[in-house]
């Protein structure tokens, strides 16, 4: 059902504010049958809970903390001095015990915790009880290799149950895990392992991606020639491909656990003891090792998973993110397992052996909650609906998205083709730094609008401000900041607290600086407009990239678009659009013209691209985000000199450059 609301286009208030020109006025109330059994059932209930959470934050977060089992109760909810936060001061707990033991030793012993499909098609499942056994043995295995509380452990694996077991085992013994995405090359692994000074590295022989083995151990071996800190390596045998093992340094996972004792008591951890380090994906520059701690992170991920996915006992939950990203940490491992959910893990590519792999798995395992990224949704759209419509998808009841602003056209496609107009779409805005969802619709309560992450989570106070920190008028775009600390916030950058304070807590004094631009509409809905670094300045008007890109994606010929500014003597900046076309559409000067006119008609002459460049693919990070800074550099200078270590496929940039030289 669609209801129309009166739309008020963004008011123009000079160069201070981001100009908003997206006119999106479709509203989708939560389906009645969904709300009827949801944790939060009406907008009124959401608003009452939200009000209480910000008026009495200590009471709200104290109550939230009761969802975890504590070994020692905390004495104060929050200590905050403007740059160092401590949540649940003095509390002791273990997150592995919370994510595994209490389910295994309680009513969920025989409930499936992890459900796995390998890319070639194998299936495995582990109950909470089995997970409990595996985690204890591997924890003892790590101890036998000299890993102690506070030591850092680097993890470089593919998606398999042992990856989750590795994280949980570190948490159990108090070691700090630093997961490096299995798609990164040796140098990236070496840099991160050295930065965190990891003592042990956990990897596997190889994993599968698009039918090919990914030689993780071989890449790790190369990285390790540059990592003096690593004393021991654990190798999980996933595929059976032969790998050299270095005597004294390398140990098979199965040997390590076979020798290990069966029982391992969870280490009592201070609420503020570090749980993990995770390096950001590097869309905007050199990766930073963000440090997350135990108590607040546990509370934040548990609560957001429960409310934003409206998680119930019978759900089968499938998040397609790799555990190597924050989404995988918070919403594949910790959030769902802390809630005792059944979590689906998939090893490989979404289009292997065919483009319907996800839809097939959803039907096979009766998945109820599906969480993916706009970049994946745009790929599904490109692959066409035939492969989707072969499957029933009738088990699904909720869809999520994360990673980039979702173009309204992609939202509508997701809603129609995957959700069959029955599933609420939960667009979750958050960051590696925030640890947990910050802005997202609580699905039984908050009506959704395509392209908007909607409203803040309980206890979260976002605001739109100018560069000087002053609030902007409603409807105008500006900088998105968060007004007060929240429990799952990153506490520091590993080894560089000064950089942490400077990056996040100094730009707008007293507030957390997100680096994203956004606006709020008349209903209090947040619309993310892209990164502040990517904002264009055209004739004194500041334009977000997201809205122009969304207009382009709404054209039937366009699959994906990235918009950047190029220095222009007259206008300050001109608008350059890199466009990849839908299947079977051919680039032509006539189409360029048509697309320019289309943008001018859809959102105004100001946004009309000065140049459109067709490209088969856009440069993306390995987590699937468009790297506009490279395109900006290319548009301005015809060269790319910036850091490209997190780029997914360098040949994309090379081919763009060639085009430029034509
Ligand atoms: P780096 O900080 O190293 O450049 P990154 O910002 O891409 O990397 P993440 O922490 O994974 O690393 O991504 C968070 C960013 O992704 C947000 O700041 C925002 O720009 C974007 N983002 C994530 N989810 C959404 C969403 N639902 N809507 C809009 N933007 C989103
Ligand atoms: Mg970021």
UniProtKB/TrEMBL annotation:
It is an enzyme of class 6 (ligase). Residues 107-487 form the AMP-dependent synthetase/ligase domain. One of its GO terms (molecular function) is acetate-CoA ligase activity. Its EC number is 6.2.1.1. The modification N6-acetyllysine is found at residue 625. Keywords: Acetylation, ATP-binding, Ligase, Magnesium, Metal-binding, Nucleotide-binding. It catalyses: acetate + ATP + CoA = acetyl-CoA + AMP + diphosphate. Gene3D superfamilies: 3.30.300.30, N-terminal domain of ligase-like (3.40.50.12780). Its cofactor is Mg(2+). ATP binds at residues 403-405, 427-432, 516, 531, 542. Residues 547-625 form the AMP-binding enzyme C-terminal domain. Belongs to the ATP-dependent AMP-binding enzyme family. Catalyzes the conversion of acetate into acetyl-CoA (AcCoA), an essential intermediate at the junction of anabolic and catabolic pathways. AcsA undergoes a two-step reaction. In the first half reaction, AcsA combines acetate with ATP to form acetyl-adenylate (AcAMP) intermediate. In the second half reaction, it can then transfer the acetyl group from AcAMP to the sulfhydryl group of CoA, forming the product AcCoA. This is Acetyl-coenzyme A synthetase.
């Amino acid at each position: 059902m669609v209801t129309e609301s009166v739309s008020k286009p963004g008011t123009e208030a000079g160069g201070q504010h981001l100009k908003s020109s997206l006119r999106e006025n479709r509203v989708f109330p939560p389906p009645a049958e969904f709300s009827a059994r949801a944790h939060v059932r009406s907008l009124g209930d959401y608003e009452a809970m939200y009000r209480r959470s910000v008026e009495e934050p200590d009471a709200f977060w104290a109550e939230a903390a009761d969802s975890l089992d504590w070994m020692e109760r905390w004495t104060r909810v929050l200590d905050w001095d403007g740059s160092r936060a401590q949540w649940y001061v003095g509390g002791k707990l273990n997150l592995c015990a919370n994510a595994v033991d209490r389910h295994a030793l309680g009513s969920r012993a025989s409930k499936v915790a992890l459900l796995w499909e390998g890319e070639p098609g194998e299936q495995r499942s582990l109950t909470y009880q089995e997970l409990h056994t595996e985690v204890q043995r591997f924890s003892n295995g790590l101890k036998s290799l000299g890993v102690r509380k506070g030591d850092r452990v680097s993890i470089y694996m593919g998606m398999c149950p042992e990856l989750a077991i590795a994280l949980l085992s570190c948490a159990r013994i108090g070691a700090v895990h630093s997961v490096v995405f299995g798609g990164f090359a040796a140098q990236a692994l070496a840099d991160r392992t050295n930065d965190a000074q990891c003592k042990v590295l956990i990897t596997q022989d190889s994993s599968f991606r698009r039918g090919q083995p990914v030689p993780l151990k071989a890449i790790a071996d190369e990285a390790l020639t540059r990592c003096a800190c690593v004393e021991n390596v654990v190798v999980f045998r996933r595929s059976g491909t032969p790998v050299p093992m270095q005597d004294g340094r390398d140990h098979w996972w199965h040997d390590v656990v076979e020798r290990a004792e069966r029982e391992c008591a969870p280490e009592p951890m201070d609420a503020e003891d570090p749980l993990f380090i995770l390096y950001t994906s590097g869309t905007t520059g050199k990766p930073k090792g963000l440090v997350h701690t135990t108590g607040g992170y546990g509370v934040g991920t548990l609560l957001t998973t429960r409310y934003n996915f409206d998680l119930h006992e019978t759900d089968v939950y499938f998040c397609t993110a790799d555990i190597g990203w924050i989404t995988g940490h918070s919403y594949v491992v910790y959030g769902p397992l802390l809630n005792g959910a059944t979590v689906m893990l998939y090893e490989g590519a979404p289009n292997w052996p065919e483009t319907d792999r996800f839809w097939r798995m959803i039907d096979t395992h009766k998945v109820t909650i599906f969480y993916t990224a706009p970049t994946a949704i745009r790929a599904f759209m490109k692959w066409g609906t035939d492969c989707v419509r072969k499957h029933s998808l009738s088990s699904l009841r909720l869809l999520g998205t994360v990673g980039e602003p979702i173009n309204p056209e992609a939202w509508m496609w997701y809603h129609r083709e995957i959700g069959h107009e029955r599933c609420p779409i939960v667009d979750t805005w958050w960051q590696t730094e925030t640890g947990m969802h910050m802005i997202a619709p609580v699905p039984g309560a908050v009506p959704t609008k395509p392209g908007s992450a909607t409203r803040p989570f309980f206890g979260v106070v976002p605001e739109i401000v100018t560069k000087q920190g002053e609030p902007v008028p409603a409807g105008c775009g500006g900088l998105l900041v968060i007004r007060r600390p929240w429990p799952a916030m990153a506490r520091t950058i590993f080894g560089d607290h000064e950089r942490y304070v400077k990056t996040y807590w100094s730009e707008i004094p007293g507030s957390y600086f997100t680096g994203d631009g956004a606006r709020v509409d008349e209903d209090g809905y947040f619309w993310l407009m892209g990164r502040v670094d990517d904002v264009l300045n055209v004739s004194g008007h500041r334009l977000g990239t997201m809205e122009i890109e969304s207009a382009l994606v709404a054209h039937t010929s366009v699959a994906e678009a990235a918009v950047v500014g190029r220095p222009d003597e007259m206008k300050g900046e001109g608008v350059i659009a890199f466009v990849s076309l839908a299947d079977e559409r051919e680039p032509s000067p006539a189409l360029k013209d048509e697309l320019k006119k289309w943008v001018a008609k859809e959102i105004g002459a100001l946004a009309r691209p000065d140049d459109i460049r067709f490209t088969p693919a856009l440069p993306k990070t390995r987590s699937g985000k468009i790297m506009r800074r490279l395109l900006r550099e290319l548009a301005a200078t015809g060269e790319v000199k910036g850091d490209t270590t997190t780029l997914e496929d360098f040949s994309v940039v090379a081919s763009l450059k060639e085009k430029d030289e034509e």
